[in-house]
Amino acid sequence: MQDSKKNPFELENGCTLWEIANQEPVVNKMFNDAMVSSSCLFNDYIVRYGDNIFKGIESLVDVGGGKGVMAEVIAKKFPHVRCTVLDLPHVVCDNPNDGIVKFVSGDMFNYVPPANAVLLKWILHDWSNEDCIRILRRCKDAIPSREARGKVIVLEAVVGLTSAMISKEPQLLFDMLMLMVTEGEERDENDWKYLFTKAGFSSYKIICTFGFSSIIEVYP
């Protein structure tokens, strides 16, 4: 490669996927629609495991939550949780503020609004270890202590957690996609533990679902 810090997508196009989405409305819509579809994959997990996950949680920020599909599901199923979506201005500019979900424009690398819990759904696998640590530190700054029920909820693959091919094949395919298009990768438990520790978190708990992604609760 001409520049080892750039992925193949960036080398071919001269800019990152995120920069193209910011500049091209058609690409932005296509990407956001894809994220809406991905959220639908997780809705059942959130409903199934949510009683324990959201117990005692009064507020939640869905970082990079796009159109707010998952946040709306959470707000309706667990009405005691006030849900906010944080995403870039070109993503949230047309989203309706209907009172169910609040939308805030901003950059997760700079600021995450305060809440009892922060949700990261398929966010960290897009980024390098260094960037993931930066994002996680911002999330940690936004939540209270564990005693006050502060936590970060990460929805991501945990490679090798199960040997079932129904999980393994999609994880490998997504790993190749991340390597081609982003600076990220799919990670195993040791990789996740390294990131959480470096970001200053004390412990974590993995909830293994029936799909190829897991729910990880990370505690300050």
Automatic annotation (TrEMBL):
<dbReference type="GO" id="GO:0032259">
    <property type="term" value="P:methylation"/>
</dbReference>
<dbReference type="InterPro" id="IPR001077">
    <property type="entry name" value="COMT_C"/>
</dbReference>
<keyword id="KW-0808">Transferase</keyword>
<keyword id="KW-0489">Methyltransferase</keyword>
<dbReference type="Pfam" id="PF00891">
    <property type="entry name" value="Methyltransf_2"/>
</dbReference>
<protein>
    <submittedName>
        <fullName>O-methyltransferase family protein</fullName>
    </submittedName>
</protein>
<feature type="domain" description="O-methyltransferase C-terminal">
    <location>
        <begin position="4"/>
        <end position="202"/>
    </location>
</feature>
<dbReference type="InterPro" id="IPR029063">
    <property type="entry name" value="SAM-dependent_MTases_sf"/>
</dbReference>
<dbReference type="GO" id="GO:0008757">
    <property type="term" value="F:S-adenosylmethionine-dependent methyltransferase activity"/>
</dbReference>
<dbReference type="GO" id="GO:0008171">
    <property type="term" value="F:O-methyltransferase activity"/>
</dbReference>
<dbReference type="InterPro" id="IPR016461">
    <property type="entry name" value="COMT-like"/>
</dbReference>
<keyword id="KW-0949">S-adenosyl-L-methionine</keyword>
